[in-house]
Amino acid sequence: MTDSSPYASLKIADFRALLAGRLLGTIALQIQSMAVGWQVYALTKDPLALGLVGLSEALPSIGVALYAGHVADRVDRRKIALWCLFTLVLCVGALSGCSAAIKDNSLLAGLIYLIIALSGFARGFYGPAVFGLTGDIVPREHYANAAAWGSAAWQASAVAGPIVGGILFLWLAAPATYLVSTLLLFGAFLLFLRVKARMKVEEKKEASVVENIKEGLQFVFSNQIILAAMAMDLFAVLFGGAVALLPIFTDEIFHMGPQALGILRAAPSVGALLVAAYLAHKPITKDAGYIFLYSVAGFGLCMIGFGLTQNFYIALVLLAVSGMLDGISVYLRGTIYQLLTPDDMKGRVSAVNNIFIGSSNEIGEFESGVAAKLLGLVRSVVVGGSLTLLVVIITAIKAPKLRKLDMRTLYREPAKSPTV
Questions:
Q1: How confident is the model at residue 204 (pLDDT cuts 50, 70, 90)?
Q2: Burial class (CB within 10 angstroms; exposed 0-12, middle 13-18, buried 19+) of 206
Q3: Contact at 8 Å (CB) between 394 and 293?
Q4: For the domain that residue 358 is a member of, what is the CATH number?
Q5: How many domains would you assign to the chain?
Q6: Mean pLDDT, to the nearest integer, of 359-386?
Q7: CB–CB of 346/77 below 8 Å?
Q8: Residue 113 belongs to some domain of the structure
Q9: Are residues 349 and 52 in contact, defined by beta-carbon separation less than 8 angstroms?
Q10: Cα–Cα dist 85/130, whole Å
Q11: What is the C-alpha separation between 29 and 23, in angstroms, rounded?
Q12: How many beta carbons lie within 10 A of that of residue 329, not counting itself?
C-alpha cells in the first residue's frame, strides 16, 4: 500500500541524512555568500564588483556542468557529493585564512574571486550528484513529497544562513564568519557519509562522453515541459533577481548595517519555507501549469514593488511574498524534473538545469551589477521585474503543454529514456 502521509519521504533514513546534510551545507554556503557580498562591497564600493562575484562562480560551474552530468550518471553519486563537499571545506577555509592574513584590499578582493571560482567547479559537480542521489533513495510515488521537504530544508537554511551570517559578520568580522561556515560544511560532509545510496548504472551500451552528453541535451530540448520550465527559471530570475544588490539597498536606501542585510536576504526564504511546509501536506496536482505561471508573474511584480519602495519593512514584506511565490515554482520544477526524467539520465538533465540555474542566479548577479551601474539602482530592479512579466507571457503562449500541465498525468506515465 502506498504511504500517502505528508512525512512519507522523511521515514527513509537515507533521505533524512541527505536532507540534514543539505541543510547544513546550504546554511554554510548562505553564510559564506552573505559575508562575501558584504566584504567585497566594503572593499570596493562598486556594484559591478558584486556582479563579478556571481560571475566568478558561475563560469566554472557552467563550464563543467555537462561533463558533471555525465559523471553523475556513471559514477557513485554519493562519492561525487563527498568530494565536492570536501573541496568546499577547503575553499571556505581559505577565505577565512586570507581575510585574516591579507590587509591589501585589492589583493584580498582578487583572491576572493579566485577562491569563489575554485568553489564553482565543486558546485558544478555537486548539483547533478545530489539531484540523482535523491532519485536513488526515494521511491517514485514520493518524489513530490521529497521535493517539498527538500525545498523546505533549503529554504530553512536560506533563512538561517543570512541572519546568522549577518550577526557573525557584525560581531566577529569576516575571518571568523568564514570559519563557522567551514565547520558547518564539514558537518554536512559527515552526514553524507551516513547515506547508503542504491545507484543503478545500466550497462546497456558503451557510449562515449560526447554521445552521453548529446543524449542528455536532446532529451531536454525535445521535452517542451522541462525545457519551458528551465527557460522560465533562467530568464525570470536572470532579469528579476535583486539579491546581489541587497548590500547596496541596505547601505544606501535603508541606511542600515550587515544585520539588516541578513534579514533582507532571509525574508524570501521565510516565505518559501512556509509554502514548502504547506505543500508537503497539500501537494499541487490540478492546474499546476497555470499556478506555475502565475507564481512567476507574481514574483516579477514583487521585484518591481521592492525596487520602488524606500521603506525597509515594506521591502521586507515584498521579499517574503516573492519567496512564497518562488517556493511554489521551485516545488513544481523539482517535481516535474524528477517525474519526467528517467533514472539513468538524472545527472545529465540536472546538469543542463544547473546551467540554467547558474545562468539565472550567478550570471544574474552579474547582470544586476551591470544594470545597476548603467541604469541606476532602482531603475535596474524595476526594469528587471517588468522583463520577468514579459517572460511569463511568452512562455504561456509558446509552451501550451506546460500551461495545461496536470501533475496527476505525470504520475500515471513513467519517464522513459529516448532510446527506449
A1: very low
A2: exposed
A3: no
A4: 1.20.1250.20
A5: 1
A6: 72
A7: no
A8: yes
A9: no
A10: 11
A11: 10
A12: 24
Q: How far is CA 84 from CA 87, 249, 271, in A?
A: 5, 33, 29
pLDDT in tens, 50-75: 667 777 877 888 788 888 887 877 87
What stretches of 223-345 show up as alpha helix (H) in DSSP? Answer: 224-240, 246-248, 258-281, 288-308, 312-340
3 within domain boundaries: no
Q: Using CA atoms, how far apart are residues 80 and 82, in angstroms rounded to an integer?
A: 5
Q: How far apart are CA 52 and CA 366, in angstroms?
A: 6
* C-alpha cell at position 347: 545527472
Backbone angles phi, psi at 116, to 5 degrees: -65, -35
Confidence band, pLDDT 50/70/90 cuts, at residue 1? very low
Domain of residue 41 covers: 9-195+209-412
Torsion of CA 275, 277, 280, 281, to 10 degrees: -100
**For residues 352 and 207, what is the distance between their CA atoms, to the nearest angstrom?**
19
pLDDT digits 0-9 by tens, 85-140:
999 999 999 999 988 888 877 888 888 889 988 988 898 888 888 877 887 788 77
